[in-house]
Design brief:
425 residues; alpha+beta; 3 domains; Heat Shock Protein 90
């Protein structure tokens, strides 16, 4: 979730809570104010009636055109004591002049007449329709909430985009940055202290990464060279030893086995070096390449090398497949897949290569059971050790795919081991 969306959702949530609480408090305050005004009017009306009654003066008619009315009845002391806490009430009354029922506010007052009889005076006056008030307040609160939300979102979007511009510039620079490649300098001037420190930290880490990259690259190169040198010396001495006429057949066989082991170590060392370079992203130059041409050129070489296996190959070109990637990596990628199809094939087996839009499929015969798709791209995963296989071919394929954003999958289909290479980014 983007920062802007996250902030907007948080603001909307808290604004909803604040507006709901404010609406409740506003409604309560309005009702209390209205009740206070109505209660004051009822008290004045009640005092006027009691005063006139006690003075023997005429009192207003019940239906006097003002919608106010009153009732007087005799009560007992016990009744008064039980109803003293119910002086003010809200109820519905029938207005004769309007011939309809309306909400009203009621006040009950107790007094004694000249004969010392206890009387209850009930005065009633129409008041506002509270349900209508609630509905009106809810509608206005809703409109206010939406208006404030839209306004706040607009203001926040503008402020965040303006103030967070240095962060977006830095993120864009980091996305494009490649260790060991030609990178543009960071141009991100800002007056905000936090972003200044963030720029400095990013530059320090980039510089540290470049130093570590160079040190690692030097170490890998030196280590590979140091390993290759003694291996080459050992091999030369063994080859010279083979020229000794005093060696027996058994000794010659053992020397040849040692030479083959050294050759296997050499291939393994080169594969590990290549894998390390791929994972360190040392192949940065890219160009447009034709997969069809690469496949045809490689097949010509492999058919000669593995001619003794009598493997038949079929190439189906449905489309011309062009991709943008490093030339050396593209050659290694397809070489390893085709070599894997030859090395792990059976004599008089078949290899079927299909080139489609953004997809290269290589299927070969081999052992008549599926391999473990979860482990087949692991380093040194073997079902059975094959001559000429270092155990790193498919691991290198997977590393190249990760670097370039491709994907490679395996499945056992129609008695063939099929690898599908998808170039869609």
């Amino acid at each position: 979730m983007k920062l802007l969306t996250h902030i907007t959702l948080r603001i909307s949530f808290f604004l909803l809570i604040v507006m709901t609480l404010w609406a409740c408090l506003f409604y309560t305050a309005i009702i209390n104010e209205i009740n206070d005004e109505v209660d004051d009017s009822l008290e004045d009306y009640s005092e006027m009636i009691i005063t006139r009654k006690l003075a023997g003066e005429p009192v207003p008619e019940r239906d006097n055109g003002t919608n106010n009315t009153f009732f007087i009845k005799r009560v007992t002391e016990q009744y008064m004591n039980q109803n003293l806490d119910k002086r003010y009430q809200d109820s519905m009354i029938y207005i004769r002049t309007k011939k309809e029922t309306e909400p009203a506010r009621i006040l009950k007052t107790y007094y004694r007449d000249a004969e010392n009889d206890l009387l209850e005076l009930t005065v009633v006056t129409p008041t506002i329709e509270k349900s209508d008030l609630k509905k009106s307040i809810l509608e206005w609160i809703l409109w206010l909430y939406l208006s404030l939300l839209v306004l706040i979102v607009i203001i926040n979007v503008g402020l965040i985009k303006h103030n967070m511009k240095p962060l977006y510039v830095l993120l864009k620079w980091l996305d494009k940055y490649q260790i060991g490649g030609e990178n543009e300098p960071l141009k991100n001037s800002t007056d905000i202290v936090e972003f200044q420190k963030l720029n400095e930290a990013a530059l320090r880490n980039a510089k540290r990464g470049e130093m570590l990259f160079e040190e690692q690259k030097q170490f890998i190169g030196n280590a590979s060279h140091e390993i290759q040198t003694p291996i080459a010396i050992c091999r030369n001495r063994l080859e010279m030893l083979l020229e000794d006429e005093n060696l027996g057949e058994k000794q010659i066989g053992e020397v040849i086995k040692v030479i083959q082991t050294l050759e296997s170590i050499t291939r393994l060392n080169k594969s590990l070096l290549l894998l390390s370079k791929i994972e360190n992203n040392q192949f940065v130059e890219k160009e447009t390449l034709c997969i069809n041409t690469i496949v045809k050129n490689l097949l010509t070489d492999f058919e000669e090398v593995y001619q003794y296996k009598n493997i038949s190959t079929e190439v189906i070109e449905r489309e011309r497949l062009e991709i943008v990637m490093n030339n050396a990596l593209a050659s290694v990628l397809i070489t390893n897949l085709i070599k894997n199809a030859y090395v792990h094939n059976i004599e008089e087996g078949t290899i079927r290569i299909e080139i489609k839009n953004n997809c290269l499929i290589i299927a070969n015969t081999g052992i008549s059971k599926p391999l473990d798709p979860k482990r087949i791209f692991d380093r040194f995963y073997h079902t059975k050790k094959k001559e000429g296989s270092s155990g790193l071919g498919l691991a290198i394929v997977e590393s190249i795919c990760k670097i370039d954003g491709f994907s490679c999958s395996y499945e056992y289909k129609n008695d063939s081991h099929q690898f599908s290479l998808y170039f869609t980014r």
